[in-house]
Amino acid sequence: MLDSLKKRPGSLRWAPRQKFGATEQGRAALAAYEEAISQYQARVQKDRQELERLQTAWAETHRVTPLDAAILAEFAVKDRLPREVQSSLDSCGTTLREVQAAVDRLYTAGLLAASGGGAPLPAMGGAGDVIDDEL
Question: Which of 127, 135, 133, 134 is nearest to 7 (CA)?
Answer without folding.
Answer: 127
